[in-house]
Amino acid sequence: MTKNILLVGVGGQGTILASKLLTIGLMKSGYDVKMSEIHGMSQRGGSVSSQVRFGDNVASPVIEAGSADILVAFEKMEAMRWMPYLKKDGKLIVNDFEINPMPVLTGRAQYSSDIKSVLTDATKTDFVDASSAAMTIGNPKVMNIILLGALVKAMGLEAIDWHAIIASEVKPKFIELNKRAFDQGMQMIS
């Protein structure tokens, strides 16, 4: 059976690195894995999405609307934007974080104040304050690895040696920091 994971965020949040680490871990565990990513205007703070599909035999990297088993949103508005891709019984992990889009910054729109209740009413949702946890660990850039840890725990993929994968893929001076971030994320999901 193929599982579908959608990771979404805003440019610069590390969505692509988290997806890459996830893909490597799943491949090392013997799964057939397909990954696709859409950068869009990511360098300008635009939407970024990565689709990871894994199972015994995966034909396509594309996740269609209504078929994601789990959606990991690195920002709350992105969770709202990508909700149509989640299965009816799917799970949502949301970084409890806001990045104001251009219409909000220019005063033409307001950031919705009821996103949390809308998401919680729509599906099984875990809010993770990955951004604050990253600051506590000492580097805001590890927020993505915290969310990866939360995803791994939510999907029951703890048996994979994620620390070894992190060590093989990040710069040596950031390995221990990223391992701590990953472990923190695992603890943030019940």
Automatic annotation (TrEMBL):
SUPFAM superfamilies named among the record's database cross-references: Pyruvate-ferredoxin oxidoreductase, PFOR, domain III
Domain of life: Bacteria
Residue ranges annotated for the Pyruvate/ketoisovalerate oxidoreductase catalytic domain, each copy included: 11-187
InterPro entries associated with the record: IorB_Oxidoreductase, Pyrv/ketoisovalerate_OxRed_cat, Pyrv_flavodox_OxRed_cen
Keywords: Oxidoreductase
Gene3D superfamilies: Pyruvate-ferredoxin oxidoreductase, PFOR, domain III
Name by which UniProt lists this protein: Indolepyruvate oxidoreductase subunit beta
Organism: Fusibacter paucivorans
